[in-house]
UniProtKB/TrEMBL annotation:
<dbReference type="GO" id="GO:0000053">
    <property type="term" value="P:argininosuccinate metabolic process"/>
</dbReference>
<dbReference type="InterPro" id="IPR014729">
    <property type="entry name" value="Rossmann-like_a/b/a_fold"/>
</dbReference>
<keyword id="KW-0028">Amino-acid biosynthesis</keyword>
<protein>
    <recommendedName>
        <fullName>argininosuccinate synthase</fullName>
        <ecNumber>6.3.4.5</ecNumber>
    </recommendedName>
</protein>
<comment type="pathway">
    <text>Amino-acid biosynthesis; L-arginine biosynthesis; L-arginine from L-ornithine and carbamoyl phosphate: step 2/3.</text>
</comment>
<keyword id="KW-0547">Nucleotide-binding</keyword>
<dbReference type="GO" id="GO:0004055">
    <property type="term" value="F:argininosuccinate synthase activity"/>
</dbReference>
<dbReference type="InterPro" id="IPR024074">
    <property type="entry name" value="AS_cat/multimer_dom_body"/>
</dbReference>
<dbReference type="GO" id="GO:0006526">
    <property type="term" value="P:L-arginine biosynthetic process"/>
</dbReference>
<feature type="domain" description="Arginosuccinate synthase C-terminal">
    <location>
        <begin position="119"/>
        <end position="334"/>
    </location>
</feature>
<dbReference type="GO" id="GO:0005737">
    <property type="term" value="C:cytoplasm"/>
</dbReference>
<dbReference type="Pfam" id="PF20979">
    <property type="entry name" value="Arginosuc_syn_C"/>
</dbReference>
<dbReference type="InterPro" id="IPR048268">
    <property type="entry name" value="Arginosuc_syn_C"/>
</dbReference>
<keyword id="KW-0067">ATP-binding</keyword>
<dbReference type="GO" id="GO:0000050">
    <property type="term" value="P:urea cycle"/>
</dbReference>
<feature type="domain" description="Arginosuccinate synthase-like N-terminal">
    <location>
        <begin position="1"/>
        <end position="109"/>
    </location>
</feature>
<dbReference type="GO" id="GO:0005524">
    <property type="term" value="F:ATP binding"/>
</dbReference>
Length: 344
């Protein structure tokens, strides 16, 4: 049996070195999943490897099966950060299924409500994943009672999220120095409406397509509010290149490549992009959904002295517009003139 138990709390490190950048990049895998468990596992593995080295352990054990992504995340991190320390994986090596484990407990006189064990629930700071028989096929969705957070609110509720340099700063006017607590506050408000529930279908590291349910009220509300604020405060090309780079960042994070040096380079770019992402986003919550109402920001590029889209302009004349359009059309006019000449 165990002779000692230690809890390694790396919540703040997880926020500072991962969640913060996922918000900066509006990272949603396949446009849906906020990489909840995927990102968390890496920091669990790093903390475990560091502690194993600290105490001089000769082995590290983890309970991943041989069927998913987590085995890669744990094994790879241990191989890199704790080389020479043996990795023990009884669940994977002995092919211990959930059904086998439940039957084993029953056979040995352990009495409990095993219905909840029909679902694999991984609850974390940045969302909760839920796997069960419904996620093993493509036709079904999770039943209402499979979600850990149940809907307790009706009607509508206003929510205001304030950001400073891309980070969540205040919730409904309450300033949070501790960003982890700010996330918890948004989760508390949003989860009672069932916001952030969805089904993620994606490609796993091992090559199979996987399907998992999740609930992530805080990540979905924070990311989409942040994204809306960015649309108002960043330039066209900042938005474009951020999207490309953030997609790579999310993919590498999911694929157990957090320790790849390029990730630090991407984080530097994402941080640089957030200088003007300051302001407050107004949201209306209702059961199962929400509406992004608008933003208030001193850096709002929609508000300018040159004109209003579709209404009036003050920065150029009609002749300027004609000249601009003619110059812009030059490459196309050259191409189609050449096509027409060669079609004869």
């Amino acid at each position: 049996g165990a002779v000692k138990h230690v809890t390694l709390d790396v919540t703040q490190e997880y926020y500072n070195k991962s969640i913060k950048y996922m918000v900066f990049g509006n990272v949603l895998r396949n446009g849906t999943y906020p990489i909840s468990v995927s990102s968390e596992r890496i920091f669990q593995a790093i903390a475990t490897a560091d502690y194993a080295r600290e105490i001089g352990a000769d082995a590290i054990a983890h309970g991943s099966t041989g069927a998913g992504n987590d085995q890669i995340r744990f094994d790879l991190t241990f191989e890199v950060l704790a080389p020479g320390i043996k990795i023990i994986t009884p669940t994977r090596d002995m092919i211990l299924t959930r059904e086998y484990e439940i039957n084993y407990l029953r056979d040995h006189g352990y009495v409990a409500d095993f219905t909840r064990m029909e679902y694999s629930i991984n609850k974390g700071l940045w969302g909760t994943s839920i796997g069960g028989k419904e996620t093993l096929n493509s036709e079904q969705t999770l039943p209402e009672d499979a979600y850990p957070s149940q809907i307790t609110a009706q009607g509508t509720e206003a929510l205001k999220l304030e950001f400073k340099e891309g980070e969540l700063h205040a919730v409904n006017g309450e300033v949070f120095a501790d960003k982890v607590k700010a996330i918890g506050k948004v989760e508390e408000i949003g989860s009672k409406y069932g916001i952030g529930r969805d089904m993620h279908i994606g490609d796993t590291i091992i090559g199979l397509k996987g399907r998992v349910g999740f609930e992530a009220a805080a990540p979905i509300l924070i990311i989409n509010a942040h994204k809306m604020l960015e649309k108002h405060t960043l330039s066209k090309w900042q938005l474009y290149w951020k999207d490309q780079i953030a997609t790579w960042y999310g993919m590498f994070l999911h694929e157990a490549q957090y320790l790849e040096p390029v990730m630090r380079d991407i984080e530097a770019m994402l941080t640089s992009s957030q200088r003007n992402v300051n302001g407050t986003v107004s949201i209306i919550l209702r059961p199962y959904s929400y509406t992004l109402v608008g933003v208030e920001s001193a850096y709002d590029l929609v508000k300018n002295d040159l004109g209003e889209y579709g209404e009036i302009q003050k920065g150029w004349t009609a002749e300027d517009a004609k000249g601009f359009t003619k110059i812009l059309s030059t490459p196309l006019r050259v191409y189609y003139a050449n096509q027409k000449k060669n079609e004869k």
